[in-house]
Amino acid sequence: MKDINRRQAVLMTLLAPVVASAADPQKEAKVGDTDPGSYLNKMPAAWSGSEKIGIVIYEHMTPLDVIGPHYFLGRMRGAQVQFVARDPSPVNCENGLVIEPTATFDTCPKDLDVLLVGGGSSGTVAAMRDTRTIDFLADRGSRAKWVASVCTGSLLLGQAGLLRGYRATSHWAFRSLLKDFGAIEVDERMVFDRNRATGAGVSAGIDFALALVQKLRPLDFAQAVQLLAEYAPDPPLHSGTPDGAPPEVVNRVRDLVASFVEDARVLARSARPAR
Amino acid sequence: MKDINRRQAVLMTLLAPVVASAADPQKEAKVGDTDPGSYLNKMPAAWSGSEKIGIVIYEHMTPLDVIGPHYFLGRMRGAQVQFVARDPSPVNCENGLVIEPTATFDTCPKDLDVLLVGGGSSGTVAAMRDTRTIDFLADRGSRAKWVASVCTGSLLLGQAGLLRGYRATSHWAFRSLLKDFGAIEVDERMVFDRNRATGAGVSAGIDFALALVQKLRPLDFAQAVQLLAEYAPDPPLHSGTPDGAPPEVVNRVRDLVASFVEDARVLARSARPAR
Question: Which domains does chain B have, with CATH numbers?
Fold first, then answer.
């Protein structure tokens, strides 16, 4: 409830000394509440692990870019999933979804097994312009076991210098931008090059995460999670790629995103050196 | 940040009179922040509408069940999407995702174009036992233009009496339960019967939402959103259904959810009459 939040923000400011310890950025990041009573907790020990996963969230991002992968990564018993934001305040994602961070750039574990960032529209461009966001990605990305993006999240990795010299993919309408960031553009739904893992647009994050889970856990676990997700897709339309969609629809979507592509191209000129 | 929330909760209680107006349940529900600068705002007028969409969220639910559909429904320009919860406090979904409601059962619009509820594991069973949740679903569901569920969200619709006499689907492991709620079980990825719209497990919500968008907006809009989502799925494994997965994986997943199925079957005996 936005109004309540604003009031809370005011109260928090007035009562800052009282709550200082709770807001201490040195304090260890909390993992979001997990459900001790979940029927799914009884997974066999062979399927367990202890990965640290940081999912970066930012204003006006596209939630499905990361919530698709979150289903698969979050099902990994023992993994610690953090939703990491610039600040502790709730993040307004696209189209009305408000996510509360479980960690900030300050409290996020230093060494991640998976650093994942999704895309968006103007929110992604704003994040590309934000030095703190790019610094965070460059820092955690320089040490993470897997540096991963979905959709235009690849532009954020690119801005942080994390894709220079790597084969990578992105949303179809933005893929040609990858070379502006020093990456090698690959026209695939997912690309794994050394420890860089990039997915194509939005829904590609689901295929991509299922492949990533196979690299982190046993094959039969990945199969079980796919079965739990009933992931046997069957789209009722066939307009998911520029080749499949009617040309006038492709042109309309290209028009919609044209200035986004242009803005990102300009920003690429100030992208960081390789990490 | 959970600790901060707990402190805020205490502060809110102490300072209740100060913040009473913000918490007034009669106040109109707020729509989550939308991005006035989004590159995607320039959609043609023919693609606009004004649907009221209520996505029900509850503790320990599976976020992807509703965030898949949210991508497609949320892209409908002019639609008002609400994430509706029992209370205004943040909702701990499965595996660390915390969503902040934009409306409560009290502030949610009375007449919805789409009432959507997703599933989960123990969280869904807890919600089935919660009279306020079932009352809310029965009330809004009795008037909504579309009454929709993904995955075990169908058990919640069933508990509210909303599936009696309707053809419906659910997650494959729970589909046989539908007749316990007076529904006609259909072994399909999505089922539309009059104004009841049910999807199969988790990821089926994406196929389902794309079909629902076709019923609400022009075909070329649905095609454009599919293209924006790059929804041309290509799973790297083929274990999404019991027929496709190795038998030992199917057995293991059946074992994991066996007591969930049993608990839901018992609850079905107290399901509401038809709405």
Answer: 2-31+50-268 (3.40.50.880)
Burial class (CB in 10 A: 0-12, 13-18, 19+), A145: middle
A184 inside 8 A of chain B by CB: no
- Verify whether the Cβ–Cβ distance A207 to B233 is below 8 Å: yes
Look at residue B5 in the predicted model and tell me its pLDDT: 53
Cα separation, A17 vs A38, whole angstroms: 38
Q: What is the pTM of this model?
A: 0.89
Q: Chain A contact for B48, CB < 8 A? A: no
Please tell me which residue in B116, B151, B267, B268 is annotated as part of the active site. B151
Residue range B212-235: mean pLDDT, rounded: 97
**Cα-atom radius of gyration of chain B, to the nearest Å?**
19
Longest dimension (CA), chain A: 60
Q: For residue A157, what are its two tokens?
A: 């990795």
Q: Tens of pLDDT along B34-89?
A: 777 788 888 888 888 999 999 999 999 999 999 999 999 999 999 999 999 999 99
Neighbours of A252 (CB within 10 A): 20
Q: Is B93 noted as a catalytic residue in this protein?
A: no
Instruction: Tell me A121's DSSP state.
Output: S
Q: Is B33 or A170 the better-scoring residue by pLDDT?
A: A170
A154 touches chain B (CB under 8 A): no
Tally A–B CB contacts below 8 A: 370
Residue linked to tokens 């461009």:
A125
Nearest to B224 among A40, A220, A252 (CB): A252
ipTM of the complex: 0.89
Residue A54: enclosing H or E segment and its boundaries? strand A52-56
CB contact under 8 A, B67 and A67: yes
